[in-house]
């Protein structure tokens, strides 16, 4: 009886074995399409930051501001499908009339799935955080120049490499003529160009799936942490961007940690229903949470590092090219 059982068992095992010895080749169906993400050329972005600084401080109502605006429009026209320039006057908290231009460039303007990337291109009229020459305008290599430089290189890459989704790149003006120190006067005193745009959209009924603001993304060893409103209103975008950065090896820049809350252009874009995040330099060792060069004359090309521009730019290009078109 036992022998019979064992021989059955052996037969059974053998028959199973013989089945697995020659497996039927079933073709592996790969539903994930191959995505190639273009390489972000950091030296190119660096040159775009320097080109802006070479105009001098880009303070509204100045010659350098006009000249740099013309340069940005010309460059974006050479890369994007459409460039719309919004021109007007906004009144600053101190009563100054600021001539502004918002420059909005689009790729695949007809596409339903859209991502909005934005940065401010004007620079602060004062160096109020400096100990010297407080009343002189800053160069704003990082605060203004860096975000625009990264987005220019992304625009250049989108011209060279077709993308399926729609991408809008907005350079907002008159961000940094704001009042420091709180109080009713400082409320809504920053981001005047963005505030204007949210009330006067460049395209009727414009919307985007989400938005990403770049603010001070060029300094050596910069760190980016979860900004409060970004996490509250667009937590999944924050996670996607930070996880993507980490997967590319940029975890020294993109830290999975809470930063502070910042009143910035993204506040107003969130207010019109486009969930938006702020990638902004966070410095835990400083009292205000910003890097030491912030609103000082040290914010010049010396603080800019191409490696930081690459970390941000390559992360964004990867996020864009992995985004799926919704039907
Ligand atoms: C305030 O200082 C209130 N918000 C920071 C916005 C800003 C200015 N980002 C760069 N410059
Ligand atoms: Zn600033």
Layout of helices and strands, plus pairs?
Layout: H1 2-21, H2 42-53, H3 63-79, E1 82-91, E2 97-107, E3 114-120, H4 141-160, E4 166-172, H5 192-199, E5 210-215, E6 224-226, H6 228-247, E7 254-258, H7 265-271, E8 276-280, H8 306-322
Parallel strand pairs: 3-4, 3-5, 5-8, 6-7
Antiparallel strand pairs: 1-2, 2-4
Helix pairs in contact: 2-4, 2-8, 4-8, 6-8
The protein binds N-[2-(1H-imidazol-4-yl)ethyl]acetamide and zinc ion.
Zinc ion binds near residues 143, 176 and 295.
- Total domain units: 1
Span of the ends, CA to CA:
66 Å
- Per DSSP, what share of the residues sits in E-state strands of 2 or more residues? 15-25%
Series of secondary-structure elements, N-terminal to C-terminal = HHHEEEHEHEEHEHEH
CATH architecture assignment name:
3-Layer(aba) Sandwich
Number of helices: 8
Ligands: N-[2-(1H-imidazol-4-yl)ethyl]acetamide, zinc ion
What is the CATH homologous superfamily assignment?
Answer: Zn peptidases
Backbone CA Rg: 25 Å
Strands, total number: 8
What overall geometry do the principal axes of the alpha carbons give?
Answer: globular
**Low-pLDDT residue spans:** 6-20
């Amino acid at each position: 009886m036992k022998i019979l059982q064992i021989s059955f068992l052996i037969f059974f095992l053998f028959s199973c074995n013989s089945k697995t010895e020659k497996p039927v080749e079933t073709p592996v169906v790969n539903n994930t399409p191959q995505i190639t993400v273009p390489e972000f050329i950091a030296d190119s972005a660096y040159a775009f930051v320097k080109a802006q600084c070479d105009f001098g401080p880009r303070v509204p109502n100045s010659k350098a501001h006009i000249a740099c605006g013309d340069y940005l429009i010309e460059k974006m026209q050479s890369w994007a499908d459409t460039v719309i320039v919004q021109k007007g006057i906004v009144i600053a908290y101190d009563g100054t009339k600021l001539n502004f231009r918002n420059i909005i460039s689009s790729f695949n303007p007809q596409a339903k799935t859209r991502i909005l990337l934005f940065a401010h291109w004007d620079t602060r009229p004062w160096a109020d955080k400096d100990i010297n020459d407080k009343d002189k305008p800053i160069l704003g290599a990082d605060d203004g120049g860096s975000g625009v430089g990264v987005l220019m290189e992304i625009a250049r890459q989108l011209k060279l490499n077709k993308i399926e989704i729609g991408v809008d790149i907005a350079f907002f003006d008159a961000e940094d003529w704001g009042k420091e120190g709180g109080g009713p006067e400082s409320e809504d005193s920053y981001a005047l160009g963005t505030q204007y745009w949210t009330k006067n959209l460049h395209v009727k009924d414009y919307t985007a799936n989400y938005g990403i603001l770049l603010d001070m993304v060029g300094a050596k060893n910069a760190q980016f942490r979860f900004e409060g409103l970004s996490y509250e209103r667009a937590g999944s975008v924050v996670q996607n961007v930070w996880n993507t950065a980490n997967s590319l090896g940029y975890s020294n820049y993109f830290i999975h940690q809470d930063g502070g809350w910042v009143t910035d252009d993204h506040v107003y874009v969130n207010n019109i229903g486009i969930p938006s995040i702020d990638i902004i330099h966070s410095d835990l060792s400083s009292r205000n949470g910003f890097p030491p060069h912030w609103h000082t004359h040290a914010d010049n090309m010396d603080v800019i590092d191409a490696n930081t521009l690459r970390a941000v730019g390559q992360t964004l290009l990867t996020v864009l090219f992995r985004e799926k078109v919704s039907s």
